[in-house]
Amino acid sequence: MANAIQTLLERDGLLLTTDANERTISAQLACYLKQALPEWDVDVEYNRQGLDPKKIGIGGSTELVYPDIIVHRRRSDANLLVVEMKKGDSPAPDDEDLKKLRGYAATFKYPNALFLRLSTTKANVSAFLWV
Asked: Which of 6, 66, 65, 12 has the alpha carbon at shortest distance from 33?
């Protein structure tokens, strides 16, 4: 994971400093993760668990969810990593993303759940938290 993030910052820092869309940045990071983990499927905003929509319980309700990046094996229960990513330097609380990550880990048995915030002023990592 660290190597994929480092590659993103080195090769695509301009995406951050020009404030490109978060999906664009997530997709590029997913490309670097796929290179590092060729035996896994790496998807951006993949909202399926098998053939069913991906749903988790958050705060007493069930919500459809679209994880920023997942590393898994499609059409199976094999999950390796889920990433929620934010861009920007805002000190705003990240509670909702952390709740989602905990929900992904509990519901879909992701052994690794990561919250990642990337700075748009310095093109670096401003938060890296395993949940």
From this structure: 6
Architecture per CATH, 2-130: 3-Layer(aba) Sandwich (3.40)
Helices vs. strands in the chain: H and E counts, helices first: 3, 9
Contact residues for 3 (Cβ-Cβ < 8 A; gap 6+): 32, 36
User: What residue ranges do the domains of the chain occupy?
Assistant: 2-130
For residue 42, the one-letter residue type is V
CA separation for the pair 53, 62 (Å, rounded): 12
In this prediction the pTM is: 0.92
Whose CA is closest to 81, among 127, 44, 56? 44
Other CB atoms within 10 Å distance of the CB of residue 89: 12
2 contacts 34 by C-beta, under 8 angstroms: no
Give 27-62 pLDDT, tens digit per residue. 999 999 999 999 999 999 998 887 888 899 887 888
Q: What is the largest CA-CA distance in the chain?
A: 42
Angle at 114 between CA 123 and CA 107, to 5 degrees: 150
